[in-house]
Specification:
Length: 169
């Protein structure tokens, strides 16, 4: 039974990669150098002209650093970005209420929020689905990860938005 589940997960991942490749950003997207990674869904990047942006990932919400599992989400993201020389392409969606740039993040041909959700290292942020052009793909990946108890789905769940509400300063 585990081999069958593993096979279907493998097929889904291969499909997701090919689907993401067909939707990957064109070469006209500006490439950014990562300056720092704050947590599993926020980082700072530099443009070629040296302007720095604080970027909040569209589509997902990762656990906070002070939250159980938050360091795991951060470390997964750092590892993923390092495999692409800490360079990303951004599909900018706008600004949030804190002035951060909201963007879909690509590392090479990898749709970063999709990879995070597939690995069980982030949640789909349903509240802001209108800012996510890949919402359906990421939502489907989350359902599979949840069903198979991948990453955070194998743990006691506390959604980041609930944790933030409970831990307001």
């Amino acid at each position: 039974m585990n081999k069958i589940i593993g096979f279907f997960i493998f097929i889904f991942c291969v499909y997701s990669v090919f689907d993401a490749l067909s939707n990957s950003p064109s070469e006209e997207f500006t490439q950014y150098q990562i300056s720092s990674v704050h947590d599993g869904d926020t980082m700072r990047v530099r443009r070629p002209e040296n302007e720095e942006l604080k970027v909040r990932f569209a589509c997902i919400d990762a656990r906070e650093i002070g939250q159980q599992g938050g360091r795991s989400d951060l470390n997964f993201l750092i590892s993923l970005l390092q495999t692409h020389d800490n360079r990303v392409k951004l599909q900018i969606m706008g600004k949030d209420r804190f002035g951060r740039t909201i963007a879909v993040v690509w590392a090479g041909n990898v749709l970063v929020p999709l990879a995070q959700v597939e690995a069980g290292q982030a949640f789909v942020y349903h509240r802001y689905k209108d800012d996510c052009p890949y919402y359906q793909e990421i939502k489907e990946a989350e359902a599979i990860a949840q069903k198979n108890k991948v990453g955070l789905w194998g743990e006691k769940i506390e959604y980041p938005w609930e944790w933030r509400r409970r831990n307001k300063k």
